[in-house]
Amino acid sequence: MSARDALLDAYQSLLQEAGERATTLTAVAARAGVSKGGLLYHFASKEALAAGLIARLDALVEEDLAQMRAAADGPSRYYVRTSVWTGGALDNALIAVAQLAQESHVEAQRAMRRAREQWLELIGTEVDEEATAHAILLLGDGLYFDAALGGGTDPAEPGRFSPEQLMPIVDRLLRAARE
Amino acid sequence: MSARDALLDAYQSLLQEAGERATTLTAVAARAGVSKGGLLYHFASKEALAAGLIARLDALVEEDLAQMRAAADGPSRYYVRTSVWTGGALDNALIAVAQLAQESHVEAQRAMRRAREQWLELIGTEVDEEATAHAILLLGDGLYFDAALGGGTDPAEPGRFSPEQLMPIVDRLLRAARE
DNA sequence: GTCTATAGTACGATAGAC
DNA sequence: GTCTATCGTACTATAGAC
After folding, report:
1. Residue B41 reports pLDDT greater than 90
2. Which stretches hold the DNA-binding feature (chains A, B) (predicted)?
């Protein structure tokens, strides 16, 4: 793995576990196993780290959308199924960027909005009824909210959700929307 | 209004609009119209501000639970209806405390978990099926996530939800769970 | 009860050796 | 490509006048 990726990983995991405040250049460098000077060779500023993370998220969302389009069980079920916390690359990037977005980082907010719009659009190809499409999107948002609150590290926490539990609910929403 | 409340309001609104990083003692004091020294007379430390905000949230949640218990349309419908962003006192306090929680503030995380558990418990008195109760809780979480991402200031933003849109969905979930 | 002044610390970023 | 040393800034909190 390149030093650049290691630094981006350290930045991402710190954002997620400790928040934006605690994610200092010193802390990121330490976690990646380099000095602050070493970090700043690869990312000239803290803003460059944020831009790198957002670019990573954009790429992962693109991949996710392709899989969502191809999902055998349809986009809605794919979306909810994969919004449950798995610790996957997209989950982690999304929670980290959400942290930036909440600190009023404009580009992070834009990236989050972009991703949500595209997910909603794909859900819309399966369910005509707008309210149902929105409700399905909200279920995913709720799952990310829960993951973001706890730092997203403990998958066995009470109140955490499983796909097995949630999929019948999605089925009902889809069925009801078709009637 | 007491100076204490004015300072707490300033702290809360800054957390919400600008994030934890930008919520410095100087910024809070300026928004409340006092000097830094004036602020520190009422709240001896930044931690005291956080504790004050969490206490405020606890009180508002308590009030909300009482209204939720007494709601004519039942706790589930009340919960979703009031989770849509209204700019009310509870909404604002909740988003602000969520910001603290995401910066790894342990007491803020505890307060969020406490509130969610109590809401879920009340929803559970109406809905026996656990999966449905969780789905309803998730809808509310999703609504707060959306509000938190944008800073919660613009109620007319596209992708925002209305109670009119969401209530039929809740009705369907409740009906389906009873069958 | 509110102010100014300032101490002490930690941050982001630069400079230059290797 | 990575390091150490350091500059300038901004933060939390204290001290003491009014």
Report:
1. yes
2. 24-43
